[in-house]
Structures are given as C-alpha cells and as structure tokens.
Amino acid sequence: MENHLKSFRSDDCVGPLKIDHEEYVTIKFILIRQAYSKIREKCLHFNIQGIESYCPMEFFTKTVEVSINSLENILKYMTDETSVLHKHGSIVSRVLGKLLYKETKKVIYDRKVHRLQLNFIYDYYLLDELIRDDYKIKCLKVFVWRNSCNKNTKENLDHHCVICLEDFLPKENVVPIIPCGHVFHQDCITKWFHEHFRCPICKTYPSIS
After folding, report:
1. Which residue numbers delimit the RING-type domain (predicted)?
2. 71 and 37 Cβ atoms separated by less than 8 Å
3. What is the DSSP secondary structure assignment for residue 177, as one 8-state letter?
C-alpha cells in the first residue's frame, strides 16, 4: 500500500511520513528572515519540541552534503527517539538540508538579515486519505450483476448493497472488492472510496490483483 500513497514532497515539504500503523504526517518548512542588530554572528534558529538551538549559518553554506549532514546531527541531538523528526531524520535532512543550503547562501552576505528562524508545520493524515485516486480507480473492477450466477459472498447479504441498502438489479453495474469478494453498486463504492479506502463490510484494503 505504501507504493500507492500521494506524495507531498517539494523543496520545502516532505511526506507522507509514517507515524503509526495507519497514521502519517507531512512537514512543511518555513524560514523567516530576521534582523537583530545586537547579533554579530549570523545564525539559524531552531525550536523543536520546545528546545531552542542556535547554529552558525556558515555551517549550511559550504556544500549541500555538509548542510544535510549538519542538519541530521542537529535533529538527532534535539529530538527523542519517538519523534517523527528522529525516526525519519535522514529523509527530512535530505530535503531540508538542500533548502537550508539554498536559503543561507542567499542571505549570508545580506547585512539586513542576521537570523533565519526555522518553523515546522505538521499536517496529519489517516492512511485512507492518502491513497492515490488513480490507484482507487484501478481497483474498481466493474461487471454486470446477474442473479443466477453472482452472490454477495458466503454470508449472502440478500443480493443487496450494504452502502445504500438497495437490491442489485439484473444488468446493473456492480463492483467486487478484491480480495474479499464483497460486492457493491459502482456509484456507491466509488463515493465510499473518496473517504474510506477499504471494504465497508470486512475493512479489507482493496487491491488490483
């Protein structure tokens, strides 16, 4: 299922990153330029889990690789093992490290900028919300209902769709969930998939095989 998730990755965003069995998060990075006349050395200001840290800006202006490695060490130092920034430190560092390299190079010689403040914005998702629409469509194997040869699984749910509670009519388009085999109206299961990508009866995740 991991191969069929939407991607939010960009120059200033990473994710989805797995938190728990069916919970994910995306992290957007915000850099704010600040001017403080009393600060002599240009620095990068981190505030992670209530812990503040100031790092010389020059650490991130040497090369992209140095910027990535510096950031990875900072995240290991500032976060505990349960933090998403710790668990996915290498992924976060590769994206954020490149961003920091690019942004610090822009302001390192700018006299109006003495500090870059780094903020993290978290957006949380359940697995069902992240399944790509093109994969959902591929999972809809439409066929025509025929009372004589089709049943709605061993439990036999009286040949009706449990979403709308209407009976299946002869020659009506229906969709079976693979691999469980439960059957639904095409329109009903298509709408259901927008919010819940699993069988309404047994909660199995559909597949295209």
Report:
1. 161-203
2. no
3. P
